[in-house]
Amino acid sequence: MPREFSRALRVGEQIHRELAVLIRTELKDPGVGMITLGDVEVSRDLAYARVYFTVLGDDAARTASESALRRASGFLRRELGRRMRLRIVPELRFVYDDSQAHGDRLDALIAKALRQDRERHSED
């Protein structure tokens, strides 16, 4: 019977859950702002994990949070190793997820186009 999810997906979901708890409870760096973890993509060989995150705030908050997460990646990886039953814990790479900002920009463009279209049709 084939598996529904690959091992990399299952490990990624477990890393996501554990990191959310670790960042909220164990990480004491004030540079980490109000972050939300999005997705965790683990390579097929489980050597690397790309962790996507968003930050509440401006670009300065994003930059500060990104550098704080990179500084804490060793600590987080060690704690993941203690909590998870893996022979090798993936190296964590934190990536800012700009899909929310991109989606907001597209929504604004669509709303502007619709407004302009209504104005043209109301003039006719």
What would you say this structure looks like, in words?
The chain is an alpha+beta fold. The chain contains 4 helices and 3 strands; from the N terminus they run αββααβα. The protein has helices at 7-25, 59-71, 73-83, 99-123; strands spanning 35-42, 48-55, 91-96. A 3-stranded mixed sheet has the order 1-2-3. It is elongated and about 70 Å long. The model has no long low-confidence stretch (mean pLDDT 89).
Major beta-sheet overview: 3 strands, mixed
**How many individual domains?**
1
Relevant CATH superfamily: K homology (KH) domain
- Provide the low-confidence segments as ranges: none
Could you state the order of secondary-structure elements as H and E? Answer: HEEHHEH
Give the strand order, joined by hyphens, for the main sheet.
1-2-3
Mean pLDDT: 89
CATH class assignment: Alpha Beta
What is the CA-CA span between the terminal residues?
A: 63 Å
Helicity level: 40-55%
Proportion of beta-strand residues: 15-25%
* CATH architecture identity: 2-Layer Sandwich
Pfam families: RBFA (PF02033)
Main location: cytoplasm
Subcellular location: Cytoplasm
Family: Belongs to the RbfA family.
Q: What's the arrangement of secondary structure elements?
A:
Blueprint (H helix, E strand, L loop, with lengths): L6 H19 L9 E8 L5 E8 L3 H13 L1 H11 L7 E6 L2 H25 L1
Parallel strand pairs: 2-3
Antiparallel strand pairs: 1-2
Helix pairs in contact: 1-3
